[in-house]
């Protein structure tokens, strides 16, 4: 049996916002902007941080 997937979505879980928050304000702003631009320009790849994944899971558990 052969299966093919077209235009499939991938989720990449990487890093955390706390890593960025430890920098000075100027560097923090540059890193946040760079990360958001990278995230927005990644077609078919949803990039989330471990913090965001935890927040999503916590929300689901608390609102069931």
Secondary structure elements and pairings:
Layout: E1 10-13, H1 17-21, H2 25-40, E2 45-48, H3 50-62
Parallel strand pairs: 1-2
Protein traits:
two-stranded parallel sheet, alpha+beta, 64 residues
> How helical, in percent, are the residues?
40-55%
Shape: flat
Largest sheet: 2 strands, parallel
Poorly predicted spans: none
Question: Class by helix and strand content?
Answer: alpha+beta
Cα radius of gyration in angstroms: 16 Å
Tally of individual helices: 3
Number of strands: 2
> How many domains?
1
Spatially, the strands of the biggest sheet line up as: 1-2
Strand content: 5-15%
Order of SSEs: EHHEH
What is the arithmetic mean of pLDDT? 89
Q: Kindly report how far apart the N and C termini lie.
A: 38 Å
Structure description:
By secondary structure, this protein is of the alpha+beta class. The protein has one domain (10-62). The chain has helices spanning 17-21, 25-40, 50-62, and strands spanning 10-13, 45-48. It has a two-stranded parallel sheet with strand order 1-2.
């Amino acid at each position: 049996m052969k299966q093919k997937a077209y235009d499939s979505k991938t989720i990449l879980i990487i890093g955390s916002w706390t890593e960025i928050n430890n920098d000075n304000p100027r560097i923090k702003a540059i890193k946040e902007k760079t990360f958001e631009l990278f995230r927005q320009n990644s077609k078919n790849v949803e990039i989330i941080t471990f913090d965001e994944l935890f927040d999503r899971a916590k929300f689901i558990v608390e609102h069931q």
